Amino acid sequence: MALKEGLRPRKRTFWRLILLALGLLGLLLLNWLPIFRKLEVFIPMGVCPAATMLQMKDNFTGVLRPWARPEVLTCTSWGAPIIWDGTFDPDIAQREARRQNLTIGLTVFAVGRYLEKYLARFLESAEEHFMVGQRVVYYVFTERPAAVPRVALGPSRQLRVQYVVRERRWQDVSMARMGTLHEALGGRLGREAHFVFCMDVDQYFSSAFGPEALAESVAQLHAWHYRWPRWLLPFERNSRSAAAVAQGEGDFYYHAALFGGSVAAVRRLTAHCARAQQQDRERGLEALWHDESHLNKYFWLHKPTKVLSPEFCWSLDIGPRPEIHRPRLLSAPKEYAILRD
């Protein structure tokens, strides 16, 4: 009997190692073999219950139309909408945002060579597509304010530049932004904006990105992972890390290239992530995907009130997908060998 009891922990460890190995193999196959990427379309996304669909409303778009997209998942298990093209009326969203007389902030970090490579296109495309007809204030964080390009801005749109110290490693640049954003949201940005979106600079807008995206707390489905089963998602699994998400936990894998919400909600998110990163540093740890790992832990603990479909932040490197009708924000070509030198 004692022998059997002693073998049980070993069996559990063995099967955990097998599952981990299968997960790593799955990640490699999905990332590096194009044929497996194409097979992703056969992984079911799930179905929103009919009762939930009938009750789905939004503060900006009114009654949603989740039944217009039966091929994709249009709600979360906690009742938040997943916004896909065709499920909302953009005109209603525009009118409601104007009625509320909102100012919408858009923050972006342009540090090192990322400034010359991406910032001009990001801002120019934002002027064409981001919250058109609304009051917008751009906040550019950079170590070289004088190098920020001059971009023609429309009525009721402003650009503010804030100096930040350049970190030595690109990983530290990524992680330091949570603390910087938290401070900014407690200052001028927080006083003049009602809602804020935080985005990576190595992207550009390709079609309308409007008030349909607004909500108290907004998360973005990761374009590279939105069809994957939960056990394959690249959460931080080191239990010592403040970003750790245990096996069987987690809802979706969210992209740190785009998140937002009310000033108060984003301030809570950035405070949590900055604090968790500091805890990891004190333990000599660094989460697998840096600030994105901590963002995913936060949204597991504090569910977003709106989730944006991959159409809102897409990568052309994935290839065409039938469910992606109208990409709104696209990843620019990456040149990490040059940019992160």
From TrEMBL:
The active site is at E292. Its main location: membrane. Its cofactor is Mn(2+). SUPFAM superfamilies: Nucleotide-diphospho-sugar transferases (SSF53448). One of its GO terms (cellular component) is Golgi apparatus. InterPro entries: Glyco_trans_6 (IPR005076), Nucleotide-diphossugar_trans (IPR029044). It comes from Ictidomys tridecemlineatus. Keywords: Glycosyltransferase, Manganese, Membrane, Metal-binding, Signal-anchor, Transferase, Transmembrane, Transmembrane helix. UDP-N-acetyl-alpha-D-galactosamine binds at F109, A110, V111, Y114, D200, V201, D202. This is Alpha 1,3-galactosyltransferase 2. Belongs to the glycosyltransferase 6 family. Signal peptide: none annotated. Binds 1 Mn(2+) ion per subunit. It is a single-pass type II membrane protein. One of its GO terms (biological process) is glycosphingolipid biosynthetic process. Mn(2+) binds at D200, D202. It is found in: Membrane. An alpha-L-fucosyl-(1->2)-beta-D-galactosyl derivative binds at H222, E292. GO terms for molecular function: alpha-1,3-galactosyltransferase activity; metal ion binding. It holds the Pfam family Glyco_transf_6. Coiled coil: none annotated.
